[in-house]
């Protein structure tokens, strides 16, 4: 997870103990979600999440729903195109104006959708700059080690062994 | 975009604002401030009473928070202080429209001057 630390601004957040995996990324990255096009959560991983309002399944459903609505919102809101379709109609990947991140005062959510409908979501510290390259990197890892794995059944959650 | 569409978008934005607070990994989240889409940026400002203002602009524009604060000021001055304005109703106040246009024009001029 070294690529998170490279893109962060100099923030006054307390320095993490070096070497510990949770300390290194826990400062900047909070959660990672990977969804497929049917809304199945293939991977959920969290590094640092003190607040939990819902159970895991509800949380993933809510996240997918939020992305779905935000996608149709941005497609409808887009001031540059005239042909926008109707609000609430499911959009194909790449159709209409999409978004790549949003920021609140406590976190930043970066989003990427591949042409096959794989959605990669990374929740990080709000001061972190553009993460589109990191998301593409994660997508490459997914393609290399998940899609090309002959034992992997498409649409099933990704099982992995965490190495420190 | 017609009135129905803007109402639908407003209610969608309102619920997404609320959901984003629920999904926060740490406490004290106040909802979406900036949404970066492929073709535009959306800056949102929520007043203490829950009224949301958002401005849609070119990607990478700066000082939109200040503009939103100015618009909020205009709203309090020309809408809330208008004795004929009914709360929670669409804004039809001439002075507000006039001053809003002026602020946006000024913003555009200062942009061109840079």
UniProtKB/TrEMBL annotation, chain A:
Biased composition (Low complexity): 10-22
CDD domains recorded: TRAPPC1_MUM2
Key word Membrane present: no
SMART domains: Sybindin
InterPro entries registered for this protein in UniProt: Longin-like_dom_sf, TRAPPC
Keyword Transport: yes
GO CC aspect terms: endoplasmic reticulum; Golgi apparatus; TRAPP complex
Gene Ontology biological process terms in this record: endoplasmic reticulum to Golgi vesicle-mediated transport
Domain of life from the UniProt record: Eukaryota
Annotated keywords: Endoplasmic reticulum, ER-Golgi transport, Golgi apparatus, Transport
Location(s), subcellular: Endoplasmic reticulum; Golgi apparatus, cis-Golgi network
Region span, Disordered: 1-22
Principal location class: endoplasmic reticulum
Similarity comment: Belongs to the TRAPP small subunits family. BET5 subfamily.
Assembly and oligomerization: Part of the multisubunit transport protein particle (TRAPP) complex.
Name the record gives this protein: Trafficking protein particle complex subunit
Lineage per the UniProt record: Eukaryota, Viridiplantae, Streptophyta, Embryophyta, Tracheophyta
TrEMBL record, chain B:
Chief location bin: endoplasmic reticulum
Key words, A-Z: Endoplasmic reticulum, ER-Golgi transport, Golgi apparatus, Transport
UniProt keyword Endoplasmic reticulum present: yes
GO cellular component, one term: TRAPP complex
GO term, biological process aspect, one: endoplasmic reticulum to Golgi vesicle-mediated transport
SMART domains registered for this protein in UniProt: Sybindin
Alphabetical list of Gene3D superfamilies matching this protein: 3.30.450.70
Localisation: Endoplasmic reticulum; Golgi apparatus, cis-Golgi network; Golgi apparatus
Pfam family membership, one: Sybindin
SUPFAM superfamilies, per the entry: SNARE-like (SSF64356)
InterPro entries to which the protein is assigned, alphabetical: Longin-like_dom_sf, TRAPPC
Repeat found in the keyword field: no
CDD domains: TRAPPC4_synbindin (cd14856)
Subunit structure: Part of the multisubunit transport protein particle (TRAPP) complex.
Family, as annotated: Belongs to the TRAPP small subunits family. TRAPPC4 subfamily.
Protein name listed in UniProt: Trafficking protein particle complex subunit
Lineage of producing organism: Eukaryota, Viridiplantae, Streptophyta, Embryophyta, Tracheophyta
């Amino acid at each position: 997870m070294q690529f998170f630390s490279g893109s962060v601004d100099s923030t006054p957040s307390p320095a993490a103990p070096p070497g510990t995996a949770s300390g290194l990324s826990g400062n900047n990255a909070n959660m990672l979600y990977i969804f497929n096009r049917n809304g199945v959560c293939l991977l959920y991983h969290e590094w640092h999440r003190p607040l939990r309002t819902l159970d895991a399944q509800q949380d993933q459903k809510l996240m997918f729903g939020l992305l779905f609505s935000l996608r149709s919102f941005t497609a409808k809101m887009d001031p540059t195109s005239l042909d926008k379709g109707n609000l609430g109609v499911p959009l194909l990947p790449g159709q209409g104006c999409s978004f790549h991140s949003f920021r609140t005062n406590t976190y930043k959510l970066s989003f990427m959708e591949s042409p096959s409908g794989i959605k990669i979501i990374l929740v990080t510290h709000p001061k972190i700059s553009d993460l589109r390259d990191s998301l593409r990197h994660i997508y490459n890892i997914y393609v290399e080690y998940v899609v090309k794995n002959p034992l992997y059944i498409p649409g099933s959650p990704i099982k992995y062994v965490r190495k420190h | 975009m017609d009135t129905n569409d803007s109402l639908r978008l407003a209610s969608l934005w309102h619920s997404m604002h609320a959901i984003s607070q629920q999904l926060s990994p740490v406490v004290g989240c106040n909802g979406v401030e900036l949404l970066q889409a492929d073709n535009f940026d959306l800056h949102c400002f929520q007043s203490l009473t829950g009224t949301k203002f958002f401005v849609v602009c070119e990607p990478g524009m700066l000082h939109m928070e200040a503009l939103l604060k100015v618009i909020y000021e205009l709203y309090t001055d020309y809408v809330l202080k208008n004795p004929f304005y009914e709360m929670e109703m669409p804004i039809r106040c001439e002075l507000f429209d006039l001053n809003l246009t002026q602020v946006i024009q000024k913003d555009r001029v200062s942009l061109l001057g840079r």
